Amino acid sequence: METEHVDCLIIGSGPAGYTAAIYAARADLKPVMYQGLQPGGQLTITTEVENYPGYPQGTHGPKMMEDFEAQARRFGTDIRFGLATKVDFSGPVHKVWIEDQRLIEAKTVIIATGASAKWLGLESEQRLNGFGVSACAVCDGFFYRGQDVAIVGGGDTAAEEASYLAKLCKKVYMIVRRDELRASKAMQHRVFNTPNIEVIFNTETLEILGENGVSGARFRNVSTGEQFELPVTGFFVAIGHTPNSGIFKGWLDMDESGYIKTIPGSSKTNVSGVFACGDVQDHIYRQAVTAAGSGCMAALDAERYLAAVEVPA
Ligand code: NDP
């Protein structure tokens, strides 16, 4: 296996990873970035971004990530496809394996692996995934033009995706497990004022129906126990995310949901020279702009660490 020595390894390529790369490259840390499974991260599966400062007319998530990447490349970041699959943080030099093919020995590691969509956990959801079941309305909504669909979730993501689907589909049922939405008031307003979105509260999904595609779904009202079916052909899940921190378990301190703990006011983890930024360490704000800010912190922390500590090459 080939072994490579680097000063700064960045794992992940969302707003946090790219911002860390821009700062690290400009500080001459010669960062190497592995982009992971979804280059550009979660913003590549969203549409409009209206709340990132500096874009008064708004922009699109995928375009924004192309710009972030171009800016990181401009200063010499070595950006590579590939997935980090194993780490060993026991020594002063940190070992990271890339798909069991390459070993990177890094003086500093910046973890920016983000978070991934959660699923309901139903057998039918797994069986029909990609055949009518999706966790990305923006990616797959197009296939359900003029049809009736359901989306599960009551947060900003579900509200945003319901609004997006409402433009394409005949009818959108928004299935919410409690008696209120978690989404911001502005998003709630948008949902409630879209005539072809029907919000169904206090409801859980029992089963998604269909053999080779979705033909409907069966639900239960949790207050009354009443069961009912809706004849939808698309079923979208938008119930939040889990942090992509699995390979760091046992090495880094995490909370009970797997979010990496950082020392408040910094990006430092419990391992010297290992820093975390973006959604993998933030379950509260989870915004592109906060992820980018924390990526900047991680690069500055890595730079200061390298200047202060004598790490063997
Ligand atoms: P959230 O965690 O905010 O919301 C998840 C939603 O899914 C909640 O309504 C939750 O219900 C529901 N849910 C969770 N598990 C289940 C389950 N097993 N079955 C049924 N329903 C379930 O996640 P989001 O992805 O919506 O948002 C994440 C963050 O990103 C938030 O901070 C949000 O504000 C932000 N965001 C901002 C946007 C913007 O500003 N444009 C756009 C999208 C996201 P319950 O409320 O009962 O827990």
Question: Structural class per helix/strand content?
Answer: alpha/beta
End-to-end span in angstroms?
19 Å
Strand content: 25-35%
Shape: elongated
CATH class of the largest domain: Alpha Beta
Strand tally, please?
19
Overall tally of domains: 2
Average pLDDT value?
95
User: How does CATH name the architecture of the largest domain?
Assistant: 3-Layer(bba) Sandwich
Oligomeric state as shown = single chain
Order of helices and strands: EHEEEHEEEEEHEHEHEHEEEEEEEH
CATH superfamily of the largest domain: FAD/NAD(P)-binding domain
Please give the radius of gyration in angstroms. 21 Å
- Bound ligands, named by name, code or SMILES: NADPH dihydro-nicotinamide-adenine-dinucleotide phosphate
Roughly how much helix do the residues carry, as a percent range?
10-25%
CATH topology of the largest domain: FAD/NAD(P)-binding domain
Q: Main beta sheet, described? A: 7 strands, mixed
Structure description:
By secondary structure, the chain is of the alpha/beta class. The chain folds into 2 domains: 2-116 and 241-308, FAD/NAD(P)-binding domain (3-Layer(bba) Sandwich), CATH 3.50.50.60; 119-237, FAD/NAD(P)-binding domain (3-Layer(bba) Sandwich). 25% of the residues lie in helices and 27% in strands. It has helices spanning 15-26, 61-74, 123-127, 137-140, 156-168, 185-192, 288-308; strands at residues 2-11, 32-34, 48-49, 59-60, 78-80, 84-88, 94-98, 102-111, 115-117, 133-134, 148-152, 171-175, 197-200, 203-209, 216-221, 227-230, 234-237, 241-243, 274-276. Helix 6 links the parallel strand 12 (171-175) and strand 13 (197-200). Helix 1 (15-26) runs parallel beside helix 2 and helix 5 (156-168) packs parallel to helix 6 (185-192). The longest helix is centred in the C-terminal third of the chain and has 21 residues, at 288-308. Bound molecules: NADPH dihydro-nicotinamide-adenine-dinucleotide phosphate.
